[in-house]
Design goal:
This protein has five helices and eight strands. The protein has 290 residues and is an alpha+beta fold. It folds into two domains: 208 residues, Cyclophilin-like (Cyclophilin), CATH 2.40.100.10; 44 residues. Strand 3 and strand 4 form a beta hairpin. The chain is elongated.
């Protein structure tokens, strides 16, 4: 009985989230912070309008090739004015094709919308610290792992089936994660929940408007993607316990200097002078004791 109670207490006070902790939850010096400014204006049956900013940290420390490619495109205003062309609730919201912009009235756009990207491909990049946690941003690609260009997706909930090492085919390394949402996850959730061509009225009906599969009925528009800043080194205040050793070193240093100076003084006195000084000190103590 006592063993059962003890085991229950151990289970009760053992934190259950430690195993699920991700290094992506921490910020790292030098990483770029980007801001996706987006707007959604719905029509009939489109739900509520929303607008705002999704703030992400990109892990230059773990995915340098992927982050550098994305930052270069951001600096070119490559993503400004396009829309999220593929949205699956509880999975991902996807964008990054420059052909996915409205030609007049949405959803009219280039017929190839969803298939394009920038002109330069980048090699697949993986790191054990990078996984598809909620709000992770990753690179979309074709069947070739090294075919990613500019298209990206943001996870609506954890999607670890996309992780490197979790795919079912031997030649499929998964998808390259390179950042995570720091602010605005509620906007990701709102975007993921808009009605799409696959499920316009919530009953799984066939597509009702032009556009590829999983195309939002109303435009989830990217106004801009910009770089806000780079993560700076944290300023750490020293505690009293950290300051104390330094104070001790100063005090001991002063004592050492004084001792060295004193030794020089005593060393210059003759034996007779030292004896006379000692006797004088003894007489003073004796007089005080009377």
């Amino acid at each position: 009985m006592r063993i059962a109670i003890l085991l229950s207490m151990i289970l009760l006070f053992t934190p259950g989230t430690v195993a699920d902790a991700s290094p992506m939850e921490n910020s790292y010096e030098g990483n770029p912070i980007i801001v996706i400014n987006l707007t959604y204006e719905s029509g009939i049956g489109g739900g509520d309008d929303f607008e705002g900013e999704i703030v992400l940290e990109l892990f230059l420390n773990w995915a340098p090739v992927t982050v550098t490619n994305f930052v270069d495109l951001v600096n070119q205003s490559f993503y400004d004015g396009i829309f999220f062309h593929r949205i699956i609730d509880d999975f991902v919201i996807q964008s990054g094709d420059p052909d996915c912009n409205s030609n007049g009235v949405y959803p009219i756009s280039d017929p190839s919308c969803g298939e394009g990207g920038s002109s330069e491909t980048i090699p697949f990049e993986a790191d054990a610290n990078l996984t598809h946690i909620n709000g992770a941003i990753g690179m979309a690609r074709g069947t070739d792992p090294d075919s990613a260009t500019s298209q990206f997706y943001i996870c609506d909930g954890p999607q670890h089936g996309l992780d490197n090492g979790n795919r079912t085919l031997d030649d499929d390394p998964g998808y390259a994660v390179f950042g995570v949402v720091r602010e605005g996850i509620e906007l990701v959730q709102a975007a993921a929940g808009v009605p799409t061509t696959n499920d316009a009225d919530g009953d799984g009906s066939i597509p009702r408007v032009p556009g590829g599969p999983d195309r939002p009925l109303y435009e989830v528009h990217i106004n801009s993607i910009t770089i806000r800043e780079y993560v700076s080194a944290p300023v750490v205040e020293k505690t009293d316990s950290e300051k104390t050793p330094a104070l001790y070193r100063i005090i001991f240093g002063l004592i050492a200097v004084a001792a060295i100076a004193g030794f020089g003084f005593w060393s210059r006195m003759s034996k007779k002078e030292l004896v006379d000084l000692s006797q004088t000190a003894i007489r003073k103590v004796q007089r005080k004791g009377k």
